Amino acid sequence: MQQSTMSGLTAVVLGLFGAYAGAWYLGMVDGNFALLLLLATVVTGVYWVAEKWRFKPQRERAAQQLAEQHGQRMEELKRQGITKFDTEGIEPARQKLLAQPWWLDWTAGLFPVILVVFVLRSFLFEPFKIPSGSMIPTLLVGDLILVNKFHYGVRLPVINKKIIANHEPQRGDVMVFRYPPQPSLDYIKRVVGVPGDEVAYLNKRLTVNGQPVPHVARPDFFDADTMRYSKQFQEQLGGKTFGVLNDDGRPAFIPGATEFPFHDQCRYSAEGVVCKVPDGQYFMMGDNRDNSLDSRYWGFVPEANIVGKAFFVWMNFGNFKRIGSFE
Question: Distance from first CA to last CA of the chain, Å, rounded?
């Protein structure tokens, strides 16, 4: 009875996980992988504890009882003068009793792997795939990157609450964060303004606290995906050197800026935008300046939305030369 009950319960649990994953894949729900991984760790952990302290000892006792009963039968047969009996013994039956049922293979058996993935992804390093061209030329579409989850402090999974402080975000960092208008989405941009900074992006030139960011022309950048050339420049910010792109066909003013918290800290004009970064907030921009929806459009990134610091391209299946660190 216990076996059939646990088998049915496990089938329901795994079915719920599968249904959630399927609905996420089909776009029927906004998926939350961190939550899914946490639940999988908890559920498989419960099965692992139950296996270690309840189910496995039960199977071992049953196998021991079978061995004792078999020994008693052999002794009885010997007393009756019967010396020939099955040489195969009870080993096949004993191994069958000791074997894990399928519902423990798919739960307790997977717990160590899921736990390792959970710890690595939640507290150390998380992989991301670059889905758009907003960070070209630093990051290309299809780059698979690693994000350092502890560089800005250790945070609790799912709720993202910081429990151990570490470094503060610096100008020039490439940072992954929860998109403020829709926190279920992760975005990646460059930090150009930290709390207290005045950031100005006027006539496609970046100025921080009244100091123009060094801006040196480089050869035009050719985007193989769009088959277009863009003006390329090299900038230096926060001790980091990186490339940025400008599209001469795009205007300097910021079209379609939305209402957002601390909107009154920004002044929009035909030349662009000037913003005073509030406490606990960060101003983010993409390196592909005229093809990036960033803080110029939807506002500041709260400290609570920080996910981690991007630092390494570990794979690009279309271009292996992309592998390596970046600024």
Answer: 60
